[in-house]
Specification:
Keywords: Activator, Cytoplasm, DNA-binding, Transcription, Transcription regulation. With 259 residues, this protein is of the alpha+beta class. The protein has 8 helices and 10 strands. The longest helix is centred in the middle third of the chain and has 22 residues.
Length: 259
């Protein structure tokens, strides 16, 4: 049975310090006393090294740590590439939000930077909504760090295949071919299909059909477009064929989905 992580449920979070950015001074080093609370510590720029309980971690942009009460980390950096760190102290209920190894690399540095900036801006606004937004940003960062710490690193090829799947979902009405999808991922057709099935559980052509049917359902239920208009918008030249595919995938004809 898969263990349900604490972060799968809402947390009771309380910030004990403002979300803060700091560019570490050239002579900076960190020798922490045992922490009395939790600490989020994320590197946005620079390089350095972090040590905790005999384990060492090289630091770079995207490296994030969640320290537990009692932890006493130490760190240093290259004064020519000074660390830019974002973090805050907090308490949380229930316990169990701290990865065992304490740190992970977040692949989406743009999202990391955006959450850090929003948390800082919202908190410094000083109102109740700002406090809530800051806590939500912290909770999202904790979820991202937990996920990264417990997931296998994703290769550049896997990321490319994932991006192709995202583009298909964004624009399912386009006249996609498997050859074009493979070219986008810089893979042969056979390599691409194998990796795509491993990631998404279905072949690229079937994934495209499902993306079109999902979008068709949205258009039929949320717009005034007719079945024929929806079929044409999603690349079908034969409306009856579209209707058959729709019924196969949803269990009812598209006419019954219109509101």
């Amino acid at each position: 049975m898969t263990h349900r992580p604490v972060l799968a449920d809402p947390l009771d979070l309380h910030l004990l310090s403002p979300p803060t950015f700091w560019r570490c001074e050239p002579s900076w080093s960190w020798v922490s006393r045992p922490l009395p609370d939790h600490l989020l510590w994320c590197v946005l720029d620079g390089i350095g090294r972090l040590e905790l309980n005999g384990a060492t971690r090289e630091l770079g942009p995207g490296t994030c740590a969640v320290f537990a009460p009692g932890d006493a980390p130490t760190a240093g950096h290259d004064p020519r590439r000074r660390l830019l760190v974002f973090g805050m102290h907090f308490i949380v209920t229930p316990a169990g939000v701290v990865p065992e190894q304490r740190w992970a690399d977040l692949p989406d540095r743009v999202l990391l930077g955006a959450l850090a900036q929003r948390s800082d801006t919202a908190y410094r606004r000083g109102d109740a909504l700002g406090m809530r937004q800051a806590a939500l940003c912290l909770e999202q960062l904790l979820c991202l760090i937990w996920e990264a710490a417990h997931s296998s690193p994703q290769s550049a090829t896997d990321t490319a295949v994932l991006e192709v799947a995202q583009v298909i979902r964004q624009d399912p009405g386009r006249d996609w071919s498997v050859a074009e999808m493979a070219a986008r991922a810089a893979l042969s057709r056979a390599q691409f299909t194998r990796r795509f099935v491993a990631q998404n559980g279905m072949a690229p052509a079937q994934y495209l059909i499902q993306a079109r049917i999902d979008r068709a359902h949205q258009l039929l239920t949320e717009t005034g477009m007719s079945v024929t208009q929806v079929a044409a918008a999603l690349g079908y030249t034969d409306a009856p064929y579209f209707s058959r595919q729709y019924k196969q995938r949803t269990g009812r004809p598209p006419s019954e989905s219109r509101r």
